[in-house]
Amino acid sequence: MPVSDLGRRATAAAALVAVLTAAGLAGRSLASSTPAIYTAAQAGTGAKLFSANCASCHGDQLQGNVGPALTGPNLVTLAKNTKLKVGDLFGFMALQMPLNAPASLKKDQYAAIMAYILKFNGYPAGQKALTYAAAMSSTVSMTSLKK
Ligand code: HEC
């Protein structure tokens, strides 16, 4: 095989490595900017609680009804305009919601609902359950990560 062909192959291989490295780095930085702060089991509990206490006004797909959507463009716009954190959204919903009975749920129920809202919006589940206190003080950015 001509030497020039070898050179071309080496260049192609180097380019492939560069692409793979960039993809790997991008994956890592995305994961580190969205830490896993709830468990899948917690989000499952939260889904039922949301359905019973919140969906009548916010929609069963969080799409909004009487109350604003908690996903999609509404959430993305709110996030951009207010630099929204998980703690901001949680503080509001745990103290003001349900609109007709504010702060009427148990603390761990609010945390589970938050877990569900995070899951619905594309946040990763992990090993550690979200507590009420951690949710209140969370500085993790709150938006919709779904594409
Ligand atoms: C009776 C209707 C109703 C119920 C039930 C209800 N909400 Fe709401 N919710 C609203 C309305 C209306 C607003 C807008 C209030 C405002 O802007 O002051 C709102 C706002 C919110 C917001 C702020 C969203 C934003 O875009 O500003 C969150 C988060 C939220 N609700 C979560 C919940 C959760 C979680 C539950 C269940 C525990 C719940 N709500 C139950 C009517 C309701």
Notes on the structure:
The protein has seven helices and no strands. The protein is mostly helical. About 6% of the residues have low confidence. The protein binds heme C.
Furnish the topology, listing elements before pairings:
Elements (H helix, E strand, L loop, with lengths): L2 H31 L6 H14 L1 H4 L13 H11 L3 H11 L10 H14 L11 H6 L10
Helix pairs in contact: 2-6
Features of this protein?
binds heme C, mainly alpha, Cytochrome Bc1 Complex, Chain D, domain 2, 147 residues, 2 domains
List the helices and strands in order: HHHHHHH
* Distinct small molecules bound, one entry per kind: heme C
Total count of strands: 0
CATH topology of the largest domain: Cytochrome Bc1 Complex, Chain D, domain 2
Net shape: globular
CATH class of the largest domain: Mainly Alpha
- Name of the CATH superfamily of the largest domain: Cytochrome c-like domain
How large is the radius of gyration? Answer: 21 Å
Q: Calculate the terminal CA-CA distance, rounded to whole Å.
A: 46 Å
- Helix fraction, binned, reads 55-70%
Secondary-structure-based class equals: mainly alpha
CATH architecture of the largest domain, by name, is Orthogonal Bundle
Number of helices: 7
Query: Strand fraction band?
Result: under 5%
> What's the structural domain tally?
2
Calculate the mean pLDDT score and round it: 87
Q: Outline the biggest β-sheet.
A: none
Low confidence ranges: 23-31
In summary, what is this structure?
The protein has 147 residues and is an all-alpha fold. The protein has helices at 3-33, 40-53, 55-58, 72-82, 86-96, 107-120, 132-137.
